[in-house]
User: What shape does this take?
Amino acid sequence: AQSVTQPDIHITVSEGASLELRCNYSYGATPYLFWYVQSPGQGLQLLLKYFSGDTLVQGIKGFEAEFKRSQSSFNLRKPSVHWSDAAEYFCAAVSGAGSYQLTFGKGTKLSVIP
Amino acid sequence: KAGVTQTPRYLIKTRGQQVTLSCSPISGHRSVSWYQQTPGQGLQFLFEYFSETQRNKGNFPGRFSGRQFSNSRSEMNVSTLELGDSALYLCATRGDSYNEQFFGPGTRLTVL
Assistant: This one.
């Protein structure tokens, strides 16, 4: 079955520190991959997406993600975290062109220490 | 361009009742998908509508249904509410040249 796994339920980092959130996928072929962020009581905002091509993807708010086919991973990174980055982050995938059903990971909650 | 709007934002119902939630997509978007978000199950796909036709359905009981109107607005209905239906219901819309889905703020449903 197709699945997306986020191994870390909760991560705490200090403001100014670097961040990496992990995401692994299990699909027959390389899916389209996304990272979303959700602030408390809010909907989901797209941070970045990967369809094909360059494996390092730049997104909004200073985030980037690297696609690694050999590891079936799509990890999200930020070099310097701000207190406003505290939120829940979701990795998601669709199986490819013509498919629009997002499969989400369980999410990683990020806490930022001032 | 206005974003995705969902109404109402909050709803409290009792077991056995039914509820209707509404989603208005971004102008020009013809696809509307619905997702349920709960602490235990996370985000789960309910169904997708495109041009008034249901194109895909997730693994939910028949109590969950939806429809889409000619102006692309969509409604979802849950009948015979159960306590486990308490959740944040999110809708997402996308344009025809697919690249991403835009989410609304959600409707928080509480079933007592």
